[in-house]
């Protein structure tokens, strides 16, 4: 039931504060032990023995995996790679010992992801060296899926049924699973100080309230900004660091439901080709959150502005961010936590652009909710 919402996608975007609240109550309880603040069903040896992680996924789930890889590497200090499941199947990297393979699929039914996981299990199990044993973890929104039958360890994101073909609340749920894993690895391996771990946990606890305000505010902002995209044919999304995958996700959401050509780029790559596309007809949507790449993203945005592109910033409202022609403001938070907020304006803007074009937002052409063929 869509309740009072026009589409399931809009309803599901609005459900995200609740998705986080539920996840936090289950996995980040207030009285959890200080050295293991996150409740996950793994023992200490799991966290200590793993040397590297590989993440296999498709579409939006792969973008969640990319944010996850950033957290696992930069916050928890574990070498992590992300693969398109469809590529991994036919060109896996050489086997490495003590490797955890994580399959991310909200439906738990994506053929390429299931096949990549099964191929990886197979090639590890023929080696009779314990170091290469196949340890697999599945992150999904369906504990009854084919993934759950295939992979013994499942992290259920518990986001509830998602009807819209465009993944929104399940993406957020997948991000949370990775925050949980990264914090657990960092706490158990002591790769971060207790203060840093507590600070991240505290920030996570503040997210539901911030999300509630943000969804409300951006619902209106995105609706009025969307009118400017009535004749737009191409859009460039820029982000860096932990928000680069959010730029990719913004582009995927937009093309999937509005059929507008959109590309996500790491902002520093602009000058290596895509800048040639820019003129006054091409909006550039840039994520600029405070952190190590803040100044860099602003200067990349400035380069786009010099080519007459109209600039939209997803960033805090500060003196520096006045360079943007329009702002989709987000609160000042640490860079670590920012993807949980920056994705909201992306989702709402895509939604309103598609809805104003009169398109079938929940059932876009040529797409299905789960892709069960190769
Ligand atoms: O069910 P999965 O998470 O495995 O689905 C993967 C992709 O097909 C999916 O994320 C697709 O890109 C979505 N329609 C994105 O909104």
UniProtKB/TrEMBL annotation:
Its EC number is 2.6.1.16. One of its GO terms (biological process) is fructose 6-phosphate metabolic process. Keywords: Aminotransferase, Cytoplasm, Glutamine amidotransferase, Repeat, Transferase. GO terms for molecular function: carbohydrate derivative binding; glutamine-fructose-6-phosphate transaminase (isomerizing) activity. One of its GO terms (cellular component) is cytosol. It catalyses: D-fructose 6-phosphate + L-glutamine = D-glucosamine 6-phosphate + L-glutamate. Residues 42-191, 225-364 form the SIS domain. It is found in: Cytoplasm. The keyword Repeat applies. The keyword DNA repair does not apply. The active site is at 369 (for fru-6p isomerization activity). It is an enzyme of class 2 (transferase). Homodimer. Catalyzes the first step in hexosamine metabolism, converting fructose-6P into glucosamine-6P using glutamine as a nitrogen source. This is Glutamine--fructose-6-phosphate aminotransferase [isomerizing]. It comes from Prochlorococcus marinus (strain MIT 9211). The chain holds residues 261 to 634 of 634 of the full protein.
